[in-house]
Fold this protein.
Amino acid sequence: YLPDSLKMAFTPPQYKDFGKKVSDLFSKGFDFKNELTVISKGTGSAKGIEIESSACSGKSLTGNLKASQKGTKLGADAEINCGTTGNCSAKLTFGNLIPNGKLTTSINQDCNWNNEVAFSQDFFTGLFKFNTNFSGKMGFSAAGAIGYDNVAVGGTVSGSDAGIKDYNCGAEYSNGNLIAAMMTSDQGDNISCSFFQKISKGFSVGTQLAIQSEAGTRTLTVGSDYALDSVTNLKTTANSNGCVKAAVSHVLANPGCKINVSAEFDALSSDVLKANKMGVSFTLGDF
């Protein structure tokens, strides 16, 4: 038998993840890229190693290679990224150095060093970030959230060596398949309210109202994610500015390939069927 206080205890999400379900609903799959990605996962003695290579055709042809390994000899997960545009980064994530938390450290080709400490337990989560470029400039951010009985409230503050630059707060309610969140941005000047619900196993819907006080605008966005069958998925979004997006993904069994076609339209233009953006991506291998 557990007292009611323990029954209602839960670990709140990190503040940065407030409203994440709706954000993912409106963004994932809408890449508008012509891209080929190959993912290979190691087996046997190479288990835990994953190599992902990609080529993207846009204004020019670019490529990227990502190699990752879980559980290295250092006791960390390692990841290395290199691209043809000159971008390169390395990251280590330690999951056992901090009780109930993890430490992530990374560096890129410009010697920007980023460190992140995340902590979570019943009723509380916290996240602290620190970065420097070794030339006198530094930045930081701290965020925390407390939660009880499926309700979480939190806030964040960020700044640099020059002082505080931004601060915001938010709240989220989650109960099974329903999530509602409200967050501020730009020092509390803007407000975003979102709602997400999983209607059934293969059907989810979401909506978001973004209020920008300085610009005096209000934008309402609605979206859905629907599984047409076990291997085909349809995502759609539309907002009050007339922007309509659609993405269809399909998985082939042999050869193993995931195809994603995405397009964006302007419903308020004279030619509503003309796509402003469009992309076709292929993912091969162990996706």
In short: The chain has a mean pLDDT of 93. The helical segments are 4-7, 20-27. The longest strand covers residues 163-175.
